[in-house]
Amino acid sequence: MASGNPENPGFGRVTDPPSPLGFGRVIRQSLRLGEARRLWETRIVTKCPLFFIVVPAILTIGITIAAFYDLKLNETKQSLEMFLPDQMESLVHGKVFTDICFKDNKEEISFACSQHPILLALEDTHALLTIQLLARYPTLQINNITVDNSVIFGGVTVSNHTNDRHGNNPILRARAIRLIYVLSPVGESNEWITGFLRSMHRMKSTFEGATLHFTSSNSLPEEMERNGELLVPWMPYMVLTLIIFCALICSVPGDPIASQPLLGLAAMLNACMAVCGAISTLVYLQYPYLHMILIMPFLILSIGVDNMFLMLKCWRIRMTNSGHSPKSDAQSDSVLISAITEVSAPIFVTSLTDGISFAIGVWSDFIAVRIFCTYCALAILYMFVLQSTFFVAIMTLHCRREVSSRHWLCCMKLEPDTDFIEKAVCNSGSLTVTGKGYFDCLYTLLAHCYENKHVKGISLLIYTLYLFQSMNWIIQLPLGLDLKLLTPDGSYVAEELRTQEIMFSEYGAFCFCIIYTTNISLNERSNRRKIISVYNNLTSGTLVSKGDFWLHEFEEYTNETTDTLSRKDFQKVLSKFLDHVEFSKYRSDIRFTPNGQIEAIKMIMRVRKLGSQNDEPRADFLRNHMSSSGLSGFVYDTSFLIVDQQSVTRHNVVINVFIAISVMFGISAILVPRPVSVVVIAVSILSINIGVVGALSAAGTRLDIISMITIIMSIGFSVDYTTHIAIHFLTQRTNRVERTLRAVCFPILQAAISTVIGVAILGFVPSYMIRTFVLTVLFVVCIGLVHALYFLPVLLDFTVPYSEYIVLYHPKDSS
Predict the structure, then answer these.
(1) Which of 69, 72, 499, 807 allows an S-S link to 4, with CB 3.0 to 4.6 Å?
(2) Where are the membrane-spanning stretches (predicted)?
C-alpha cells in the first residue's frame, strides 16, 4: 500500500496496482497531469498578480461596453410560446385555421371590430328591455345568424320550461357578464389597448356594486415580463447582505492582520464580473434575452463565493501546518500555491458539474429553458476562469499583506501577533486535523455517533422514512403549466383567469377538426355520411358538444337528390348551397384547390366543462376517435398546447435527470476511481434530488417549465456536497469520519449560509416563478447539507472499506 500524509485533506493520486489493461495507471497519470497543470497555472498567476487583476477587469468592462454601446437586444417576447416545446402534436401540422379556411377577398366593406349585440344594446336608452330579448343561453338565433351568448353570460341560471327549437333557454340570472372587443391587427390597436387598460385600472378602484375584471391580448406577456422587473429593486440588498456576511466570515476579531474582509468583497466582485461578462457576451452576439434572466445574477452571486471559503480555509491550514510563519513574498506564494493546488480538484469538479447541469438544459425542447440555461452555463464558465486568475491574483496580494504583518484596510505595518494564525483558524472554524479548538469535542462526538452501529441503524430508518415520504410527495406532484402562476401575485390577469374558470366553465371556445379530402369522393353520399358519423362520435362525450358543421346542412339541402352525384353536378349543387345567404357562412369551412376540388373541410365543435382537470381527457378523447376513424386529418383546441406541454415536460424532466445523473456518475468515476465510493456518490446525488422534488411538491409547486429549470439546477448543486465529503473521506486512513468533518464541515456550512442569505431575500418577491427558484435553492442547500454532514458520512463509513483510499498529491512531486 502506498503511504502518504493523511493529516491534510486534498485530492490524491490512485495507489492501486495497475490493471492488466492499464486503466488504473491511465487514471493516475491523468490526475497527476491535471494537478501539475493547475500548479503551473497558479504559479503563473502568483508571479504576475497585477496582470491577472487588470486584464480580466479590462476585458469584462470592454465586452460590457461593446454589448451596450450599440445595443441591439434580441429581446424575445416572453409569451406563452416561450414555455411551450418546439415540436408538439398540436403544432406539427404546420398549419393553423387561417391556412385552411377560405378567405373572401371580394368584400368591398370590412369592419375593424366585430361586436356582440349586447355592446350595442348597452348604448340603447332602454337597455334593460333590449338585453332581456337577447338573453338566451347558450346561443341566440336571429334568422340565419347564431350569436354565442355563452361567452358573454357567466354563472347562468336558465328557465328549463321555455326552450326554443334550437334548445336555447331564457336566462333568469347571470352572475357575470363579459364584454369582448375585437380589434383589427394594426399598430393603432396597441395604443388603444394601453389606454383601455389604464382606464380599467382607474375604474376598478371606484367601481361600485360589482367586481371588475379585465384583460387584453397583451396583458399576459406584459405581466410575465413584470416578474423580472420585480427583481431589480432587491439586487442592492442582496449584494450588500452578501458583502457584509463574507466580510464577517473572513474577519478575525481583534486581529487586523489576519482579517481579510476585502477577500470576501473580491469574491463578490469576481461573481459580478462573471455575470456581467456572460450577459454582455450573449447580448453582443444577439442571443435571445428574456426578463427571467434577471434571476440568474442572484443565483450566480450566491454560489460564487462558495469556493472562496474553501480556498481561505486551506490557506489557513497550510499556514498552521507549516510550523513557522512565512517571511517573504516567495514563501507566501509557495504556501498559497500548495493550498490552491490541494483544493483545485474539488473546485474544478463542482464548477464542472454546475456547468454541465445547465449545459444539459441548453438542449431542452423548451425555448425558455434553453435561453436561461445558456446564460447560467456561460456565467459559471466565466466565474471559474476568473476564480483561477482574477481572484487568485487578488488572494496572492492579500496573503502577502498578511505575511508582511500589514493592516487589512490601510496596509500599515503592524506588530504581528504570534498567535494570529491559530486564532484565525479557530475563529473561522477551519481547524487543523490535529489542533485543538472550540469544535474538537463536537467533531469527536459526531464521529463516535456516526460510527456507532445503533446510530447507523437509526440513520437507516430515518433515511428510509425520508425516501418514502419524498416519493409519496412526488407522486402527488401536480403536472402542467398554470397560466395564472406565470404572472406576479395579485396580477389582474390571474384574477381574470381565475374568475373565468369559475363563471364561464360550462361552455368554452370552439375547437375544430380538419379532414383532408383529396382521397375522398364527397359526391358519394356514403362518404359524406361516414364523415358525419365521425363528427357525431367526436361530439358524443360530455367534454365536447356539437357546434356547427356544414355537411349536416348540406345533407338536408340535397335530401331529394340521388345517393351519387357526378363530380361536376356535386360542384354545381355545392356552389348553389354556398350562394344561399343562410349558408354563405360555411364558405370558410371548405378549402378548394386551384382547379376547384375540395382539399379539406372543417368540423366545428364546442368545448364543454372548462378546467385543467378536463383538458387531457378531452384531448385524448378527440385524438383517439380521430385516429380510429380511418380518415386523414387532425383535431385541435387551444388547450392541446397545455396538454402537449405537460407530456413533453414529463418526458424532458425524466430524460434530463437521467442524463445529468449519468454524466455526474461518469465524472465521479473518472475523478474518484473507487467503485464503492462512486456508487455512494451517485446514490447521494439521486437521494438529494428526490428530496428536492418531493419538497417542491409539498410546498405546492407544479411540475412545469419553471420547476424543470430548477430541478436541472439542483442536480448540479447536489454534487458540490457529495464531492467534498467523499474526496476528503478517501484521503484519510484513520479516524476518517472525524477528520473529514474537521476539514470540510465549516466551509460547507459557510457556503450553505451564503447561498441561503443571497437567495432568501428573493422570498419577499411576490411571484410564483421567483418563489420556485428560491424554494429549490433552499431545499437543495438544506437537504444537501443534511446529506453531507449526516447521511453521507454514515454511509461512507458503513460501505467503504479501509483498503479504498487515495493518497494526497504534493506539488513537489511534479516539480
Answers:
(1) 807
(2) 48-69, 231-250, 262-287, 293-315, 367-397, 460-481, 501-522, 653-672, 678-698, 705-729, 741-765, 772-792
Phi, psi of 157 (to 5 degrees): -115, 125
Long-range contacts of 587-594 (CB under 8 A, 24+ apart): 587/102, 587/104, 588/101, 588/102, 588/103, 588/104, 589/101, 589/102, 589/550, 590/102, 590/550, 591/100, 591/101, 591/102, 592/102
C-alpha cell at 97: 385555421
Q: Nearest CA to 214 among 495, 611, 488? A: 495
Instruction: Look at residue 419 and tell me whether its pLDDT is greater than 70.
Output: no
What is the C-alpha to C-alpha distance for residues 89 and 87, in angstroms, rounded to an integer?
7
Q: Is the peptide bond before 170 cis (omega within 30 degrees of 0)?
A: no
Report yes or no: 569 and 523 within 8 Å, Cβ to Cβ. yes
Grid coordinates belonging to 519 = 382521397
Q: List, for residues 252-307, the tens digit of each pLDDT value.
A: 887 888 888 898 899 999 999 999 999 999 988 889 888 888 888 888 887 778 78
Q: Give strand ranges (E) for 195-294.
A: none
CA distances from 149 to 14, 177, 543, 712 (A): 77, 10, 19, 46
CB 728 within 8 A of CB 737: no
Backbone angles phi, psi at 90, to 5 degrees: -80, -5
DSSP string, 631-695: -SEEEE-THHHHHHHHHHHHHHHHHHHHHHHHHHHHHHHHHS--HHHHHHHHHHHHHHHHHHHHH
DSSP string, 205-217: HH--SS------T
Q: What does the pLDDT look like over 461-503, one tens digit per residue?
A: 999 999 999 999 999 988 877 888 888 998 999 999 899 888 9
Structural domain spans, the chain:
12-75+225-476+672-813, 109-221, 493-635
